[in-house]
Amino acid sequence: LELLEPGPLRLLTLPLIGATLAAAMAFWLQWREGRRTPADARARLAELQSRIRPHFLFNTLNTAVALVRVDPGRAEGVLEDLAELFRVALADDGGGGGSVTLGSELELARRYLAIEQLRFGERLRLDWQLDAAANAARLPPLVLQPLLENAVRHGIEPSESGGQVRVRTRVRLGRVEITID
User: Fold this and answer.
1) What is the pTM of this model?
2) Which residues fall within 8 angstroms of residue 48, CB to CB, at 6 or more apart?
3) How far apart, in whole angstroms, are the C-alpha atoms of residue 7 and residue 175?
4) Are 135 and 102 in contact (CB under 8 A)?
5) Which of 23, 82, 115, 126 is the most exposed place for a label (fewest CB within 10 A)?
6) CA end-to-end distance (rounded Å), the chain
7) CA dist 63 → 7, 68, 70 (Å)
8) 75 DSSP 8-state letter
9) Contacts of 122 (CB under 8 A, 6+ apart)
10) Which position has the higher pLDDT, 57 or 74?
11) Strand, coil or helix: what is 141?
12) Three-state DSSP class for residue 67
């Protein structure tokens, strides 16, 4: 404590104490970041797995394989749609909470439903009621796809007669409404 008293040693002591505390803080922050990174990686993997069901992937690949000899152009389209879905799902936005337009989400939704339509045929009927004025709205990527997947999985798949999935967008009171049923 005598080093903190006014005098020539004080000019050296305060910067040394500050540097020591700063080094300790930097070491602690690096240690904490190192501990957090594996948890972040696990969380991102769990999020990715929730976005992509393996069942859907295998069904899509089997559909493409079945189409290769019968309709190669259609098989190519299925694989292109699947590739686009994976490209978006695997895109790294750096954790910055990126957003996309509703129009691009709807295009991705069309690709997803085109794949499912090949699987279910006439059992899956689609009704698109889209307000073009809503397409510029911003939203997080892959918001629609899990909702559509649930509609198909729980509404169409278990029913022998299938059903209709309706996607509706509209601008109302300065906000965009999206309805999937």
Assistant:
1) 0.64
2) 89, 90
3) 67
4) yes
5) 23
6) 72
7) 83, 9, 11
8) H
9) 162
10) 74
11) coil
12) helix
